[in-house]
Description:
alpha/beta, Rossmann fold, two-stranded antiparallel ribbon, 12 helices, 9 strands, globular, binds iron/sulfur cluster, binds zinc ion
Amino acid sequence: MTCKKCLTKPVIKLPNNNISLCKKCYLRYFEKKVRKTIRIYKLFKKGDTVGVALSGGKDSMATLQLLHSLTQQQRTTKIIAIAIDEGIKGYRDETLKFAKKFCKENKIPLKITSYKKEFGMTLDQILKKLDIHPCSVCGVFRRYLLNKEAKRNKLTILATGHNLDDEAQTILMNQFRNNMAAASRLGPLTGIKDDKKFIRRIKPLYFLTEKEIMTYAFLNNLVTPFNECPYAEDSFRSRVRESLNNLDKEYPSTKSSIINSFLDILPILKEHYKTGDINYCKECGEPTSKEKCQACEYSELIRK
Ligand code: SF4
Ligand SMILES: [Zn+2]
Ligand SMILES: [Zn+2]
């Protein structure tokens, strides 16, 4: 078997269109797909200060590498990496070391904040104190700090490493939970409308699969041995992920079909849910759907 484009040794077989590509042609294919997503969905424009939420895992590293290389020549778009240190010993400290090294070598500004600094405790300490599902508190604190840190650094948009697999899972999970309001906030450009206190998020890797990103990360030496958080446990998402992977093996294109059919109805969903007003938390002033935001609720529990 040879590369479809240049007849040299292939590194990956793309399941959806059944073609094999060599390293050079694969990297070109990957970058072209990201460029197309940015262009079609107008993810950012010249003059923007784009933040990349960086965890040190393969998806966020690939996003940073891509956006850095795509914007390096034009010099009008600024790229800044934002990292949140949750305080997970033996995991996040290691992925952050990797992220710091990458940013230093590529001269990318990196801003790091932590749960310890902002909430007074690391995630490890919080979980010793509270009997709570790790990802519930962690997810709320991370989203909250990303927005705060994005504003502190005057970012105009924030890129995350979400991929096609993540999005297909989330679409199904929202369907299973009958939560179409949450579904309306998905898509390559997240959220429904602009708000001065909320930095909108973009997903440049939206149309790339987990496998494609792993291959890209591997070919660019962006893979660390620390890819699994010790608190990640069997959850609803893992069940959905497993079912989708099995279906996709048997019926290739299942995941892409979920994404594409969802994108067809997404404008209708966004229009339907755009009427609600955004509130601001009475404690911290951050955007929330309630009177007091969930991060303030959790941080009160920690202080008790
Ligand atoms: S798996 Fe859960 S606890 Fe671990 S970093 Fe992700 S959200 Fe936080
Ligand atoms: Zn080739
Ligand atoms: Zn608050």
